[in-house]
Records
---
Amino acid sequence: MKRYIEDTGLPFDILVDQRREIIKAYGVWQRVGLDAWNISRPAFFLIDCKGVIRYLFVANWQTEFPEHEDIVRELRKLGRVDGNPDWQDTSHGR
């Protein structure tokens, strides 16, 4: 995982949840399904700086993901795009 992050230069942090504690806490763990076994359903959580979930997307299938436009729209609602000076870069130089 470390090499992948370094090679891609991702501008955000990655959580590795080997014990599946986080995915279970967020309710996205899929024990058994038609297209998955013992993994997380694709999910996207937009959490504000106070720890409040402002937007969430949880898929029913492994091939479903939130639309880019939906994510940007929700970020705009929080004033977190378009050069907003309050935007906090959490990439830590990556």
---
Amino acid sequence: MMIIILSVVRIRHMILAGRELLYLTGQDSFQYILIDIREVQDYEEGHIPNALNVPFPECMDYFPTDNMFEKIYIYGKNRYQAQLVARKMGITGYFNVSYFGAFRQWKGPVEKEEQ
């Protein structure tokens, strides 16, 4: 007799509304990691304040913290890339991953890198 055990992993990731992200980035005491997965040139031309730049295919193997419960927010060139990265982080064990979607939807302040 053969017994097969299937394991179901529930992936927790959610879409973060622009208003929510704007509120979170305006908080001084809120702990989170914000990851911009666009190309370096796009990031340098403008990004959400305090965002780390980890361009898209490299970010699929990027683990920003050892704390699997850290709040992580992801945005990129489009919603699908951000969703894919959020899903991958969820599969690897991160519990609090959300994605904003496309940077062009951002209505808040923008930082630019000095040239």
---
Amino acid sequence: MAVHRLFRQTVFGPEDLAVIVAAYEHARDALGISDSAGSAATVLAKTVMRLAAEGPLEEERICARAISSVRAAQLPAALSA
């Protein structure tokens, strides 16, 4: 799934989408996710969209919470490996 297609299927306006995409891209870079079509990128995109819907729509807040959420989700898998 192309991640940007997921973003276009929302009810957010263009300015809001710019904030959401920026938060996603910064979080993706911070997490070292290079394949924007991979499953990790999709999980991150869905997390960012959920956080954006919860509000407030602030890039730094969405990015930081998305990073924490994805890292926390990966921790149990890493511990069982």
